[in-house]
From TrEMBL:
Residues 26-192 form the FAD-binding PCMH-type domain. This is UDP-N-acetylenolpyruvoylglucosamine reductase. Its cofactor is FAD. The active site is at residue 170. Its main location: cytoplasm. It comes from Phocaeicola salanitronis (strain DSM 18170 / JCM 13657 / CCUG 60908 / BL78). Its EC number is 1.3.1.98. Pathway: Cell wall biogenesis; peptidoglycan biosynthesis. GO terms for cellular component: cytosol.
Amino acid sequence: MQQKLGKIGIIYKKDIPMSQLTGMNQVDIIPLVVYPSSLQQMTDLCNILIEYGLTWEILGGLTNTYLCESFKRDVVISTRKLNRIHQLDGILTVECGCNLTSVSKHLVEQGCIGYEGLVGIPGTVGAATINNSGAFGCEMGKVVKGIQCLSMRNGQLKYFSNDELQYEKRNSILKGSKEYCVLSIDLNTSHKSNIEDLTALMRKNLEMRRIKVDGRRKSLGTVFVATSMKELYNRHRMALFFWKVLNLPNKLLFHRNDWSLYLQFLCLGHPELSRHCDSIGRFCWEKDTTESDFMQYIHTMQNLAGEKLVLEIDIKE
């Protein structure tokens, strides 16, 4: 297989430590990581995988994907080099590996509406399109016109319109699917507004994100879909009321997020979780954090919510 990759010019690396890809402390080795740099190379690669019957996984920026210690694939495909952009008649076509923040910032600077809340979300446009990522009232499902996909079963191309993607909160028909790889995304750029107003709103959103997110520690963003967290809040109204009362001096005088978070988990009966999080719904990794810590956090949160939380991140086993 490696000879064929070389003949068609696809860059690859052998025996890559998983931690090098994830920025976490996994110890496993990924046998082969490939980096197609054009849509034609991606198509050729798909045909090679089909020919050899290999197991594979497509990964973008790994900003909302966790690779378990049990994760085993013959080939990992990185989309980071698929980053070309083309604009025509109010539609911006971007390849799946383009950085979401860079694309969104560019469109805000062009006065395009719907991207001012997407700036600051880490990861690729392809992954964000599948997940229907969003923040501050903006969502990918509101700006995507359609996507070009490649079938990983037969190598055929298929176009999905916005309606066919069946967007829901942090979800689409392609989330969790192994059948298709997103190649390129058509984004709507026809709705315009005042550039200065959009830029000011973008900066305000970025400042809000800076305050809320602990940039010193690795995280995968919000672990659970925000709307599903309402189940936890409803089940523990009294405990969370006591938290607000206990946290009032801190809120008025000290503004310490870590104190507030400790009190919140304390009132829920699990103060030990506060050291792993920068908010109740976002888990963070440090050098000594283990997969067991992460899974215990998910298990505890699900118990608190009666097993009704919906994962926003992707966990690959």
